[in-house]
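At this stage, I put together one protein's amino acid sequence and its backbone structure tokens, which the following lines show:
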Amino acid sequence: MKIEPFKLERYYTLHEHTAKYSLCNSDCEAMTIADLLSLENGAKKAFENTWLGYTHTQGSPELRRDITTIYSKITAEDVIVCAGAQEPIFLFSHAVLNPDDEVIVQTPCYQSLQSVPESIGCKVLSWHVRYQKNVPCFDIEALKKMITNKTKVIYLNAPHNPTGFLFTKEEQQAIIELARINNIIIFCDEVYRELEHKPSFAIPAFADAYENGVSIGVMSKAYGLPGLRIGWLATQNQTILEKVAILKEYTTICNAGPSEFLAGVALRNRHAILDKNLKIIQDNLPLYDTFFTKYADLFSWYKPNAGPIAFVKMHFDTNDMDFAEQVLKEKSVLILPSGVYDFKGYFRIGFGRQKTPEALEQFESFVLENLMGK
């Protein structure tokens, strides 16, 4: 098995902790352990008494019950808790795929959704984003034409990283019907779920909506708790779940007890956390609106209706990787060039952090000094 270097993660490894300002983080504002424990009476004492022995391979029964509160049909027996979202992506792909299977991946994508199936020997087809008047869309008729009798899995991401696109309920149902007719598994990375900017934009989890749907969740993004390294896979398909559980015994075996405890506290109080993070998003979005209106000759963006990220198109002839490097060098501002997605001419921004205004101010100073007149 050979997997290519993970371009996005390598970029963050090199720059995330050295840049003074960040405009591209995909997670929301984090909190301290003390802040998290303060959300629930008795949580501090209970945390101090957390047993540091081995935990359940599938995840503690209490945490799995807490996870089910974000679903409608999924039960605690339909969930396996993993290390972040990366582990369930890896385990699922190895559990269900064989060499010569075909998979369809919504692209641009989080690289492991493509690279892991490729490493197994699968044929990977890309369902590419199309922009219509600055609005990203995914043509379901084009998806339909890509399906063959070898198609095993459709890999999705909703809300979509990096474009910010989210399917409508009608589009979701159309994709499910295509999968059902052709006996295809739908694997959906849903790490930004519950960060819809209005309740009317929300769609069901694919694990709830489809009997062969697999949903991935994580504490890192919408809840802003990446340090817990807690994620999960949810599906009504018990065959898939059992295969993943067997493979997990070759990777992390079980999760950290303190992290599982804290994830439970967060999920039981998730509405308070989500309200906080949505408030940050709603405060930051008008700042970007003003910025991109002011510099419309240089940039354009699609303002999403869910999640904390968006793609920005560059209207000048500069390589996006070079542009990001120059911004980082001159202003210590981190933006994510679309080259890490093998996509040209864009960069990703984030708006789930409290320090976004300061970062945007520094980015604007770069624009004024380097781009005006281009």
The chain has two domains: 7-30+271-370, 33-269. The CA atoms of residues 23 and 360 lie 7 Å apart. The chain has 14 helices and 15 strands. The radius of gyration is 21 Å.
